[in-house]
Design brief:
The chain is mainly α and about 400 residues long. Helices cover about 80% and strands about 0% of the residues.
Length: about 400
């Protein structure tokens, strides 16, 4: 974060704190609802699935709010809701509707903060420095996920509700800190972004939706991002399901216990080193390279069998694809988004996370009705289709640029 404005450093650190809070609780909500709330597996799946889906869908309106209202106020409101939901969650017991609402509020508030952070990065940093900020944020998110779950295990030994209250306390502390510091930073500098003209007009939500659905570049990038999310965002859960079917629980725990630290180590140590070489004019070649790493990693999973070193090599290669594709996707959207609709475009991009939400369902269906190894073949096909969609979006971007210059 060296050289970033103080407000961006503060928002990135807040992103880390919120991720630690999510890591403290979200991986263990199913266990909490089962043991403390007496909720059956079907209802637990409904709570988690509906809560996640509603949070993702809210991103579309959240992006509009980011463009329409003061970002500092939105940030503080989002984190306040985030904190309140964690304080209330242990009080929900086994009631289905309140738990769905609370989980949806957690995901919606985090989505709103995430979109606002991206829009703030676009406002405060030049195009050349945004890729570093996106990469720094992604690295800090992974650090947060590395800290949160182990800390939760330690706290839960004392009390099952303690991780939820700590998450609320962290978010409340972040809210107070931001409320004190954000007003001091003033307004962002004007950016000389040559792909848009400065627009100050505030447009309504219906008009915003009309703009989004007619932008073919955005549609292709969002669909490509959804398939990319299908491949990588739930890879640990996907692999564990595969291992439980193809091998046994003991071997599954051994593999997952090894590949998660390898993935975290690759992301945390190499994210910045890779991203510093990514440029706006070379986004498509980087996407091609990232997709290639995905495919090689997936082939490695197919062939690894019971050889732990092969699993480690495969996940290392797969992780290289992850650290390339995630920040490049953000830069694509930043590249095409008009200055007055940055939030709405990032909100639309967030809909791609539905691909990650669909991964467990797809994995379960494939492992039930097809040979287990076919799971990785489907994911390779999804990677290739994602790359094609990105290429189509990039093609429309170049056409739009040619048209603009000809005018």
């Amino acid at each position: 974060m060296k050289g970033f404005p103080p407000i961006i450093r503060l928002l990135l650190i807040t992103s880390l704190i919120l991720t630690i809070g999510r890591g403290l609780t979200l991986p263990f909500i199913a266990i909490y609802l089962s043991r403390q709330g007496g909720m059956p597996p079907g209802k637990i799946g409904l709570v988690l699935g509906m809560g996640l889906t509603l949070g993702i869908i809210f991103s579309l309106y959240g992006g509009y709010l980011v463009d329409r209202f003061n970002k500092n106020r939105l940030i503080i409101c989002a984190i306040m809701v985030f904190a309140l939901a964690f304080f209330l969650l242990p009080l929900g017991g086994g009631a289905l509707l309140p738990m769905i609402i609370l989980v949806a509020l957690i995901n919606s508030a985090y989505s709103l903060y995430s979109i606002t952070l991206k829009a703030s990065i676009a406002e405060w940093l030049t195009v050349e420095r945004r890729i570093k900020a996106f990469s720094a944020n992604y690295t800090l998110i992974n650090v947060g996920w590395a800290i949160g779950p182990p800390l939760s295990v330690l706290l839960a030994k004392s009390s099952a509700v303690l991780p939820f209250y700590l998450s609320g306390v962290l978010a409340a502390a972040a809210t107070l800190t931001l409320a004190l510091l954000l007003p001091r930073y003033g307004r962002p500098p004007a950016q000389a972004d040559d792909n848009v003209a400065a627009v100050t007009e505030k447009i309504n939500f219906r008009t915003t939706l009309d703009v989004l659905r007619h932008d073919k570049r955005l549609i292709f990038f969002t669909l490509g991002g959804a398939l990319g999310s299908l491949v990588c965002s739930q890879f640990a859960s996907c692999i564990s399901q595969y291992l439980m079917v193809e091998f046994d629980a003991v071997f599954a725990y051994r593999v997952v216990g090894i590949i998660l630290p390898v993935n975290a180590a690759i992301v945390i140590t190499l994210q910045y080193a890779v991203s510093r070489n990514i440029r706006r004019e070379t986004l498509m070649p980087w996407l091609l390279l990232g997709s290639l790493f995905f495919i090689i990693g997936l082939l490695g999973f197919m062939l690894a069998g019971n050889a732990l070193p092969l699993w480690m090599i495969a996940v290392a290669l797969f992780s290289l694809g992850e650290i390339i594709i995630i920040p490049v996707e953000y830069m694509f959207i930043d590249f095409i988004a008009p200055a007055h609709l940055k939030g709405s475009y990032y909100g639309m991009q967030n809909l791609g996370n539905l691909g990650g939400a669909a991964n467990p369902l797809l994995t379960g269906a494939i492992l039930t009705y097809a040979p287990p190894v076919s799971l990785f073949m489907v994911l390779i096909l999804a990677t290739l289709l994602s790359l094609w969609l990105f290429h189509r979006g990039f093609h429309h971007t170049r056409r739009a640029a040619v048209t603009t210059h000809s005018l």
